[in-house]
Sequence to fold (988 residues):
Amino acid sequence: MELQAVLMAAGGGSRMMDLTYNTPKPLLPVGNKPLIWYPLNLLERVGFEEVIVITTKEVQKMISTDPKVKLDVKMKLDLVCIQEDADMGTADALRHIQQKVKTDILVLSCDLITDAALHEVVDLFRAHNATLSMLMSKAHEFTETVPGQKGKKKNGEQRDFVGVDGTGKRLLFMANEADLDEGLVIRKSIMRKHPRMHIKTGLVDAHLYCLKKSVVHFLADNKSISSIRGELVPYLVRKQFSKSTNSPKVNDETHQNLKKIDSNVNLEIQISSRDEELLHLTQERSCWNDHRGDMSEAYHGGRLRCYVHIMDEGICYRVNTLAAYIEANRLAPKLFDEPAVHPSAVVSERCLIGADSIIGASCQISDKTSIKRSTIGVSTTVREKVKVTNSIIMHGVTIEEGCNIQGSVICSNAVIGRGADIKYCLVGSAQRIEPDAERTNEVIVGTDQLMEI
Amino acid sequence: MADCGEPDGPDNKDNITRSKNEGKELTKEEKQRLRKQKKQQKKQKERKDEKGPSETEKEKTPVSLLPPRPVATQKAPSALPAPASAPIPVPASAPFHSSPTPSPADKPAKSKAELKAERRARQETDRASKQPGSSSSSIKTKAPLSELNPVVKRLPEHVQVDDPAVVKRLAKKLERQQIPLRSDYGYKVSLFSHLHQYSRKAPLTQQLSIPSTVIHPSIVRLGLQYSQGIVAGSNARSVALLHAFKQVIRDYTTPPNEELSRDLVNKLKPYISFLNQCRPLSASMGNAIKYIKKEISNIPSQCKEEEAKTKLLQCIDRYIEEKIVLAAKAISKYAIEKISDGDIILVYGCSSLVNHILCEAFEKSRKFRVIVVDSRPRLEGREALRRLVQRGISCTYVLISALSYILPEVSKVFLGAHALLANGYVMSRVGTSQIALVARTFNVPVLVCCETYKFCERVQTDSFVSNELDDPDDLMVTRKGKTQLENWQDVSSLGLLNLVYDVTPPDFVDLVITDLGMIPCTSVPVVLRVKNLDQ
Fold:
């Protein structure tokens, strides 16, 4: 077997608590399918037959019991549960499943919605015998108004600085603005080997990584690394250019340093494979070099290599903020070609349903309603004379007559009283909006949620 | 048959000459047999069944197959300068000419010239009888010099791309093996429309499932490395292939009720098709594959799986050690004798063997300078330049367009080879024949360095018949942000051609340095024969 897929579905959705306090993030409906369906569908399309899904007990229960959550995937899902309150990072989760990892792995996050050609990422991984290969995409500006956002959108997302070489494939430098104190520091060794580097900031990390098996074993030995994105990837990118540790210099260093060197050595040793001499002979006899202009051999003799595939066009979203969630709902229908109006929905003739709206199963849409650019969830009831524009209505919602809902997100099991006028609001799960209410740009959540904050 | 035990050559020739002298009196039977042989050959190629005389002759041909073996081996030591392009008609006609003779003749041996004349006459009759027949008269005969099979091998499919029947057959074969078919790309120049032309931007892995289950992952990786040019160069490709096969053998388990010797060979077949789709196999790879298949089939059935696998892995290691590493050492030893102090050596492109020789010579403190000639679009000379300069050798770098300007300075030309063909032609990177030609006109000696495992039984006299077409988009250059040829596909009268190989005639090559010694180009068939006898 060549690659094992690992899907990280234990995240809490910390940046969109309003949506996730009742529904766990992997099960949030996007285009009337649970969020976790999208990466699973991607893996299935590409040809995977088994996936290891790391998730919480709650999600596992909901997947197996809840009829609304239908994951119609043909792959074998191996659900591994971890404690919710253990605060495990993604790297910790990998350490947890170390026993199951038998080959190189492809790590995905449950909030990735993309139509990328995965073979580009995996080909880089295979052809260059890379340790890490990842997917990134040019970020798109979110144009939709986000409910509940007051004032200008603050640039809360800290920028990522990604440095690639001339071909745009080799990953030379990766740092987050948060980790940089004063400025961008680039080591001289990198500049000597790759004098031309392109530094890009407008990229979205798709959190799709191909990792060698030896990295998982390395993680098992180094318990200090807890997040793949935050710590492991920058570490690997940095390690490409550190002095090779063929012979560990055991001087009188502190215990800390010794341990670090040991870990370095471990990684190098684990990366080298059997038949190293044959591979070396091949490289020696091959007339190929990945760079030119200096006297060094291909890859500068380094054994650790990190590659990135940057998508120019296509859909690639990480649904971890409200804005991304709304944007994803707009574009999700393009990824699967099911009919926009589910056959089991009861839609009366005298209603206007726009072409880009999705109506879920078992819905009841009454007369004289107008639904434009919206998503209506499963088992939702929409009464007469309702206007729904640019909104996302989740499952089990009841919208009474005469309502006007614009640019809003209504979570599951909410009830909107008659004649309410909701503009750019987020109505939490199981909330009731009283009749004739007029809400603009508000986040309406339950009192227990407020308590948590 | 009467002449099975014929011991010497001259007697044999007597039979031929005798039967030729009695040409007019050739029995109808013999004529029919000759015709039948040719029809069989045609039938193999065109799959047309001719009833009639062939039916009656069918049972007679198995008998006439017996004498060929001793006939051929006797011919071998006598160094006949027979053009190897017509070995088939000669042996094919030889056996049946000798078989019907009732008794060995006591005729005195005729002179060589007369024998040659008779042979030529016979060839002409063969050609005359062949002409009204097949259209594809360019039968590529894998000259079976040691084993005489009257069966002519089919043209390989990779040089018949413009024949839809062949393409359909290939597609069916690949479908059976569950390997995706790689589609051709772009407009092909008409002279080369019989060859495949693929685009590097459309790798074969696009159509494979990602955790590849049908094809072993190391083979997928190898195919990718071939198609992207990461592993390039005859030696590197063979070593990488053998390395991948080692992984395959390690991960192989014999299914129940199967024998390793047969099943493993069948497992390797789809992998080889896959690699062929990624990039056409080189001659050295072909020889390596033949060797492996032979070794696998020779595994005794009582051998336990673990033992068999270790044995195979050791065989592979030994093959690489002998044929590539030690051969390189032997060749450098011979070649260094030819390098004298004060020499100015010209090399072309990046040949791993030539680079090795020059580095060794430099270490043995020979004083020489190197001129590296390079050509677009590959520009492999840059890599050769880097390796030589890194060792401290003083080098000059020119493009092939400057060749005639620098040749007056050059004292020797060292060329590497991709394969050495059975008629003495050298198949190498495109541009090599140019170098050899211009060097000949300047009276500069041309030495080709080639290991014996790259010797190929194929025969080719021009670069059109069998070649490789690389991605035409490689010819596009972007200067100052502008790519002139960006929309070359829209121009209907424009075709881009990116050839990879060409053949150099033996007249331009002065010496071939192999691990068996320094031989003239025309002795390649002898080496092949000796090699086949050994095996």
